[in-house]
Fold Inositol-1-monophosphatase.
Amino acid sequence: MKKDLIKIIKKAGNILKEGFYTDKNITFKAKKDLVTQFDVAVEKYLKKKFSKRFKEFNIIAEESDNSNIEFNNSIIIDPIDGTTNFVNGVPHTAISVGVYKNKKPYLAIVYNPILDELYTAKIGKGAFLNGKKLKVSHEDNFQKALLATGFPYTSGTDENDLNDVVKKIKDVLPLCQDLRRLGSASLDLCYVAKGTYEGYYEMNLKPWDVSAGVLILTEAGGIVSNISGGEYNLFEDKYLVASNGKIHNEFIKNLNL
């Protein structure tokens, strides 16, 4: 299944890459939430190929109506994670596909065709970037940790969310090495998996943002939790917290100051 997934996703990556370098028709799903014709085209291509090739799985996808789809044996698609980057020519954008069996992660692919980065993972088999095995950072000193975060679309409409984002930055930034905000949750998780970041946190993520990245990170030796340190639920938790595992307890503590 993994080989077939990669083949299909790489072909869909050609659509993303073509769109990255051409004019886009941009519409807004919300005040800050963009969508382009290329998001729709990539998703349509993936759904068509996956539904034909992997009939035992249903499909949950960002630009589709998922109201009548039960999460269980599911393929979760983000056709372009980092659409704002995609629109503005920032090469931190990717196709994210997470495969779940009985609601548990099974396979994960995150593909950035602009930088030619293919992140893959299978449960119990490790995580890889372009075939090279990934391993999280060994850094255990929080003051030396490079962290990543993201800002929710609701920051433009929900003052409580905006205040919470600002508070956590104010609490955490003095205690770590620095913070990065590159705008693609799937890739941020992959960057923790390959040891670029020691940790990453964000609020209001959707299942398609992180369905692949969480497996890639855990297979590289990292940890994913909610903000209380418990098991992260794709559909329910407000915050995702991810790390190399070595700073996780202190990370959780500092996010809850």
About this structure: The chain has eight helices and 14 strands. The longest strand covers residues 104-112. The mean pLDDT is 96. Helices lie at 2-20, 37-53, 83-88, 159-172, 185-193, 207-210, 213-219, 248-255.
